[in-house]
Design brief:
three-stranded antiparallel sheet; alpha+beta
Length: 572
């Protein structure tokens, strides 16, 4: 006997009953919980599945406008940007140029001499008083890097043009002009195509070859420059078989096929809006709570007043009350004034009571979410260190430092090195820099000549006593070098430090002063008896052995249990 089929109550076009989708009492479930389309949390959540450009380019202008508004009008937004710029760039980067001596086929010493010559020329060009690296002649190269970093952090991308100022009488005429990314767009509002999107022109294999940039900002109110576009090729032929960088477009590319950079503020704009609204409402409530509203109340009600007084009597009565409170409402006793109320009058005070006690907890939670999304610590964002101890501060600093290094990497790879290579080409063409004997010409080995390290601000330290001991131990163990430690400490040049130390020691000997600890080892060599005695006096990184000098005293403090307890004690 056939079991009757359960129907859904619906019929098809022929009038036949449609079977129910249920099998017994069980409901079909999607295998992935994240793909469910019903329930309290999942119903109505159906985002579209689009390409990287389709997800961003259409909404870019609205998101960027709101992120800039946050930076202008929200102190927290401005704080995040400023902290990141100060850590990543500060106001200058120093170049340590180290041409690849193996690829150039020269000695290490010859390559170092070449690097020192390039560094000296670059320093006068990038940080000279005439701002010759800037096409607008306003900022040093460090200032331009800071502006580019601000664009990347706030707008998601930075855009620059490498120009040649042929009509300017300066030694070097290579210039960098930073351009507002808003000006990069398709000519005349043309729709995006596979080879033209967001103002970036590509080949069939998606290699960017040109950028279409407006002559002015699209929302400028003066002139018609914003209605004109110019096509800028990404590279220009230098005539020596090497493509000179012409357009520099720096952004963090997180998806395949992504053409433009996405601001990190995009994911937290809603949180910023909630924070702003809640803050405004709380401030208004606090202001209202501080107000006192007073009334002078008469015991005579409206009905009794109407029965006892005619309109002209009431006017006379009010005039007398005003005269009383103006002239006779105070009594002076021993120089102290005391208010006197009129007959049957009494004072009543009214206050408002709106609860604002939850503001601190709410703002802390919101600011932590914002800080996590923007890549800064909560303490940096809010400048609130009331609940921070050494361990938590150290952990937060390490994570934030990785974010700083990531931003530096984008600036180095996509802006600093390409622009430096364009300048170095001019330096070789002018004859101010010459290849060492036996080395190839610049255009034949560009990547070998353009090598080195950019040094920005140091990481900073939470507890200098522990950090100094750890740095000394790393150098002694061969884990790091003096160059690494000096660069991380304050972004300095290790060679300059050693040369300065040598000059100081020479001057101390000249004046008959004792040398500083460790100087005799450097002067006499590593294998001298005096050097052995100094090494034996150093603190041991594993046991915390005590030694003479500042490093020994720092080790004593660093390994003191009381010092650790003080660092890890949270503020109350």
């Amino acid at each position: 006997m056939r079991r009757p089929t359960s129907t859904s109550g619906l019929v098809d076009a022929a009038g036949r009953a449609l079977p129910s989708s249920r099998r017994g009492s069980a409901t079909l479930e999607r295998p992935q919980a994240g793909a469910k389309r019903h329930g309290v949390f999942m119903s109505g959540w159906r985002p579209g599945l689009r390409s990287a450009d389709a997800d961003w380019l259409y909404d870019r202008n609205d998101v960027i406008a709101r992120s800039r508004d946050v930076g202008r009008n929200e102190g927290v937004g401005a704080s995040a940007s400023t902290r990141m710029l100060n850590s990543a760039v500060g106001f200058r980067w120093t170049l340590s140029c180290t041409p690849n001596w193996r690829l150039l086929g020269v000695s290490y010493e010859a390559a170092r001499e070449l690097g020192a010559q390039i560094e000296a020329l670059w320093e006068t060009y990038a940080y000279g008083v005439h701002f010759t690296s800037d096409a607008e002649r306003i900022s040093t190269f460090g200032g331009q890097l800071r502006m580019a970093a601000a664009h990347i952090f706030n707008d998601g991308e930075a855009l620059g043009l490498v120009e040649y100022a042929a009509d300017e009488a300066t030694t070097f005429r290579t210039r960098l002009r930073l351009v507002d990314p808003d000006r990069l767009s398709n000519p005349n509002g043309r729709p995006d195509t596979p080879t033209l999107a967001g103002g970036v022109e590509k080949t069939a294999t998606l290699i960017p070859i040109a950028y279409h940039i407006r002559e002015g900002h699209p929302y400028d109110l003066h002139g018609v420059a914003s209605l004109n576009w110019r096509r800028w090729p990404r590279y220009i032929d230098s005539g020596y078989g090497w493509d000179r960088p012409h357009v520099l477009h720096a952004f963090d590319r997180l998806r395949a096929g992504q053409t433009r950079g996405v601001t990190r503020f995009a994911s937290v704009l809603k949180l910023f809006r909630a924070f702003s609204k809640y803050t405004e409402a709380t401030l208004e409530a606090a202001a209202l709570n501080a107000l006192f509203l007073g009334f002078v109340k008469s015991n005579a009600g409206p009905s009794s007043v109407n029965e006892a007084f005619a309109p002209e009597d009431l006017q006379n009565f009010n005039a007398q009350r005003e005269e009383f409170y103006g002239d006779e409402a105070t009594l002076t006793v021993d120089g102290v004034q005391m208010p006197v109320l009129g007959l049957d009058d009494e004072v009543q005070m009214q206050t408002t009571a709106r609860d604002t006690s939850g503001y601190d907890g709410f703002t802390r939670s919101i600011l932590r979410l914002i800080a996590a999304a923007l890549g800064v610590t909560y303490e940096e964002l809010s400048m609130d260190f009331s609940s921070t101890n050494y361990s938590s501060a150290r952990a937060a600093l390490l994570i934030a430092w990785r974010e700083v290094l990531a931003l530096r990497g984008i600036l180095e790879q996509q802006l600093a090195w390409p622009f430096f290579s364009a300048w170095l080409e001019e330096a070789f063409d002018l004859g101010l820099v010459r290849p060492p004997a036996g080395a190839p010409a610049f255009h034949d080995a560009v990547d070998a000549y353009v090598e080195g390290r950019w040094r920005g601000p140091g990481r900073g330290h939470v507890d200098p006593t522990k950090e100094v001991v750890a740095a000394a131990a790393r150098i002694e163990a061969g884990i790091t070098t003096l160059e690494d430690e000096v660069a991380e400490y304050d972004g300095g040049d290790w060679q300059e430090r050693l040369e300065q130390q040598a000059r100081i020691e020479a001057k101390r000997r000249e004046l008959g002063l004792p040398t500083t600890p460790g100087a005799s080892e450097a002067a006499a060599g590593q294998n001298s008896p005096e050097a052995d005695r100094e090494r034996d006096a150093r603190p041991n990184s594993r046991t915390g052995g005590r030694g003479a000098g500042a490093l020994g005293r720092a080790a004593e403090i660093a390994f003191d249990p009381a010092h650790d307890a003080a660092l890890d004690a949270r503020a109350r």
